[in-house]
Fold:
Amino acid sequence: MVKPQSSTLPVIAIDGPAASGKSTTARMVAKALGFRQADSGSLYRAVAASQIRLAGDNAKWSAASLLDAARSVTIEPVVGVFAVRVDGEDAEAELRSAAVTAHVSLVASIPQVRTWVNTRMRDCAKAGPIVVDGRDMGTAVFPDAVLKVWLIALTGERARRRSVELLGRDPSAEELAREAAELVARDTKDATQTKPAADAVHIDTTTLTRDEQVAQIVALARERMRA
Ligand code: DC
Structure:
């Protein structure tokens, strides 16, 4: 259980479309600031993974079955991050599997699951200063975040980065085109909740290195926290 401390601890919200580098960036920003990071996308993925463990991926999923599956999902503070677990296990590879990726947009479209995830994320923020990432952290979940970042990159670059991450090498033109088409399809499915807050700082990372984008966000966060 996460222990609440205060409701006014700083929150930095990093949102953006699929494969825009949110989670890695959020983790690096958290490390630089001495905060913890919590990834809301991992919670949606964990609910999908738990439901697949319980009922297979062909079963008919409902809000009730997903909330039941969510009972096996926990998010616990460890060094630098909140770790998401399924049945008490670190299930990172499973969370990134093709089966989970194929079902997670459906899971994330269920309002009751969104409420469950948002409550977990707010609990994490009560435990200490935090960098959160997802799609709607700066809009629906933490409208008072000290800094909101909207991270974007051109589709071709997002597809290249995701392919390198998945394959461990540069992709062929065909692999790249397939990944780009998948990203566009996921962006379309997740479009309802994938919107920048009106007061978000937009950062296009297409031509930035990870270190450059992290440095920009850390500088902005320090500026806002001093103000
Ligand atoms: O960022 P990701 O690929 O791990 O996100 C997994 C899914 O969860 C994706 O379909 C978008 C959805 N999601 C969401 O709807 N809201 C969030 N705050 C985070 C993720």
